[in-house]
Amino acid sequence: MTCRFHAAAALTCFLIGVPLAVAQLGPPNGETAEPRAAPPRQPAGPAPRRADGRVLLGGAGPEQKGVWVPVGIGEPLTDVEQVPFQAWARALYDARLATRMEPHSRCKPSGAARQFQTPYGVEFVELEDFERIYIFDIGGPHSFRTVYMDGRAHPGDLTPTYYGHSIGWWEGDTLVIDTVGYAEGFWLDRRGLPHTEALHTTERFTRLDAATMKYEMIVDDPGAYTAPWTGSFDLRWQAGTELFEYICQEANLAGDLLVGLEGRTSVERTSVIVP
Question: Does the pTM of the predicted model rise above 0.90?
């Protein structure tokens, strides 16, 4: 049985009759064994624009569907040797490289750069009348992030969340998103960079042409790093793809990454969320 839903409606549907083996076994991060790579680079025309000249984050019109997928899904956010780790943060990063037991594989939302490092991509939905932009995740938790574009400031009494509290504005063709209020229950990037609740990110999305968007992030987290640092990668427009049903199995153990890794026969399961 297949099921589709409209992004804005955020309807939930469940797949019935999935064999137990399929539900429990899976590759790293709970994604497909051979994730769909970004389409080959093709000569791209200029970025689509509104009547007033501002660049669009999607297609030129409602009929031009598409999502943004990462170029090089497993590529590091930056040269890790240049990251100014505190000692505990470097030790945790190294441990995550060894175990790869990521919260994303247990259907936890992933904020910051990790949100854009899945093979299924994201969709930007801009609602001008409401002065908000929604960033919908297709894979993983199948959730969404809200970016407030109405000029508000961050509140002073934030409860930490996976996506944090995001405010945004335009600088020419670049969407700038400033976020604070992150919870610690996700990895900063796909490889396991850690962070604390003190994390403050500034993300810049620059649409270079019809097919390419540059993603840049400034990381400022005095709880985990000795100084701010930056990372970046490109996103590629995958034309014709719309949001589709994605079932994230809460019981998915991500196959041999979580059980039997490197000769182990069992893994500690007392923690609900992997640190």
Answer: no
